[in-house]
Amino acid sequence: MTSAPGSSANFCYRHPDRQSYILCQRCGRTICPQCQTQAAVGVHCPECVREARASAPRVRRANPFARFAGSDAPRVTWAIMALCVIIYVLQILPGSVVTQLLLYYPPITTSQPWRMITSLFVHSPGSLLHIGLNMLSLFLFGPLLERLVGHWRFLVLYLVSGFGGSVAVLLIAPGTPVLGASGAIFGLLGAFFIIQRNFGGNTTQLLVVIGINLVVGFLPGTNIAWQAHVGGLIAGAAVALVYLRTRRRDQRTQQIVFVGLVVAVLVALTAVGVVLLAVSRA
């Protein structure tokens, strides 16, 4: 076998000391084996590979809940925020009894159980800090979760989390009247943590946020119902686990059943709390 005559065209354009007879399929320059990147047809040089990657369309990461996520507009989040603001305005009107009608006071659970939910939409009258912090938290985390799980599932998550917070107050601090969205918001934080953790996301910052808020609730003089925070966190995490394990379209019935079981457990705990409260008052 005879060797081909050498010329500058027979040497790699990046390594002039390496003879080669392979050309880049895109630009036609000579490249040695070290500079070759296998393509669908032929090989490409490093520059052409970089140009192809830079011009390739970016693919958005798939939403793990895409099968049941709805429109990108977080309509439920905005609706909850609007409702809280409207109720707050009604609360601060002169002579208003809205706060007394909607807050949750455990001893009246048997006669007015709906207050375990309505208390999520009322805040301390005259305290812009209370409603402001809660609405800011909802603004930050609500749209993210609603776009992930869909409108109706987000609403269920929010309400069940708030219900869990009220149940915790009934069981741990039955003499404490409570109001505010923080129990439900802690449920959103718990759900976000579970989802992020499951899909390999960084949860360190979220853990710090949850930890700080939980610790603040235990500080003397803060007048914060930490029981609602803990209850909401646990309930929200439980609902998120159900959502994660029943993401397929053919598991929709299972999802409804298991979320129903979470609610049933909370109802049962409510009954236990009512009995314990009655015994303590006897």
What class, by secondary structure content?
mainly alpha
The fraction of residues assigned to DSSP E strands is under 5%
Read across the widest sheet, the strand sequence of neighbours is 1-2
Largest sheet: 2 strands, antiparallel
Give the class-level CATH name of the largest domain.
Answer: Mainly Alpha
Q: Rough shape? A: elongated
Kindly give the count of domains: 2
CATH superfamily membership of the largest domain: Rhomboid-like
CATH topology of the largest domain: Rhomboid-like fold
Q: What is the mean pLDDT?
A: 84
Number of helices: 10
Low-confidence stretches: 1-6
At CATH's second level, what is the architecture of the largest domain?
Up-down Bundle
Taking the alpha carbons of the first and last residues, their distance comes to 108 Å
Order of SSEs, N→C? EEHHHHHHHHHH
Rg measurement, Å = 29 Å
**Using DSSP, what is the number of strands?**
2
Helical amount = 55-70%
Structure, described:
The protein is mainly alpha-helical. 57% of the residues lie in helices and 1% in strands. It has helices spanning 46-55, 75-91, 98-102, 115-118, 128-149, 151-172, 182-198, 204-218, 226-245, 252-281; strands at 37-38, 43-44. The chain has two domains: 9-46, no CATH class; 75-281, Rhomboid-like (Rhomboid-like fold), CATH 1.20.1540.10. It has ten helices and two strands. Helix 9 packs antiparallel against helix 10 (252-281). A two-stranded antiparallel ribbon has the order 1-2. The chain starts with 36 loop residues before the first strand and ends with a helix. Strand 1 (37-38) and strand 2 (43-44) form a beta hairpin.
